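Reopening this one. Same input as before:
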Amino acid sequence: MFGIYYRDGRGLAPADNRPLAVRQADQQPIAIGTLGGHYLQLVPTGAGPFDLTVWGAWQFGDWGRQNHAALAGAAELGWQPEVLARLRPWFRAGYFRSSGDDAATDETHRTFFQILPTTRVYARFPF
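Same output, byte for byte:
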């Protein structure tokens, strides 16, 4: 399980899909709670180890004057083939999904806010 609270009260215009004039007039702080959990598993096999990672997160709070409600989840599977043990490659496949906001005129901001950037070196490459 994990949880984090984020608050930004600098008075900057929030980045969202509302018109610029509306965002600039919104001086309320961004205050978001994130709760979630993850599951990790490594399974040794004769063909080489397999690993599984699954995580999900729920966000709630205030995005300036708007309510904030968002979700995200990811699943990743990896395999390190025993036949290539000398080279030690690790093949990976993953899926990530997060909510987004397609209604600029309602009172709820639904875009998942990635508070902490990834620490995964391979995630910096854009494919």
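So the earlier flakiness isn't reproducible anymore. For the record, The chain has a mean pLDDT of 90.
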